[in-house]
Each structure stands twice: as structure tokens, then as C-alpha cells.
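[09:14] KT: can someone run the structure on this one? pasting the chain below
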Amino acid sequence: MNIDLIKAHVYNKLSTESSGHDYLHALRVVKNCEKFIADYEVDIDVIIAAAYVHDLIDHKLSHNFKSTEEEIRDLLLESDLKKDQVNLVIDIINNISYSKGNVPASLEGKIVQDADRLDALGAIGIARTFAYGGKNDRLIYSLDEKDTENSVFHFHDKLFKLTNLMNTKRGKELARNRTKFMEKFISELNDEIK
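[09:31] RB: done, C-alpha cells below
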């Protein structure tokens, strides 16, 4: 696989993205995948390719899914992945999003989903939550408990639930530790804003 071609494409698309779904996020997801793949017999090329391109077809970043998907297919074929590998990468990136509520059918997909979710947790998860909130004009927090359009609500609505949704044993362990860190942060934040 010509990983340099994939990396260059993702860098070109996401290097200036400021919502926390940038090129550096893709690099961290790849590194997270590498923590999991030693435990399983999987297609490493599929996992690494999916980890790099997974946010290119995300509703937060793209609005023309069909043309973006074709662009990714062409990129992956040009990068020497086989057609069945490309199809698996596309299936993974279409099924890992939390908002869709899906679990990928393949083990490769489950690993990429865990790696992506792990990057939503811990210190980097906190930073990404507030970066995304700022970019999307969300308040940090709200005094109105019914107001769900603020960054602190996102911890309760999604992030604190991710540990139980992890697919792999290692994913659950790492997520548990990062979630504890976030819980301490939110507790401290609540004390400061009372």
C-alpha cells in the first residue's frame, strides 16, 4: 500500500480543520489502531487506510458524500489496495460514526471504531470537545439544564457512554482510564462554575 499517497491526500484535506477532526486526529487514530492490531489477525492495510480517511465522509466535514466516497475509492485504488479492501474501508468509514449507532461487521471496522472513539476521550477528548464547540458556536456550558447545545452537555450525552460501547477488551481498558480523567475534569469544572 502506498501510505504516503493516502497521508498526503488526508493532510491536504484536513490540515487546517479546526473542529478537532483534523490531520493530527487521523494520525492519533492510526496510532490507537496500532495499539489494538497486535491482538488480532486482521488486514492491517485496511485498518490503517480506514483510520486515515475515516473523517473524509463525515457529516461534520463533508456534504457531498457520493463524490467524496468516489474520490476516496480512487485514492485507495491508486494506493494499491485491492477492490475488496477498498470496499471494506468504505464500509468501515460508513459505519463507525457514533451518531449512526452502528457497529461495523468486520473486526477491522471494530478496531477503527474503538481507535476513533478513544481519541474522543481523555485530555485530547476534552480539548477536541471544546474546539468543536467553539467552531460550531456552542457555549462552554449553560445554566439552563434543558439546554443541550453546549460543550459540557456533550460529555454526558455521548463521551461518558463510550467506554461501554467499545468493541475490544483493550479499547475498554484504555477508555475507562481516559473517562476517569474526564470525570475529574468535569467535577472540577462544576466546582468552579457554581
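[09:33] KT: thanks! Residues 3-193 form a domain with the Hypothetical protein af1432 fold (CATH 1.10.3210.50).
[09:34] RB: yep, looked fine to me
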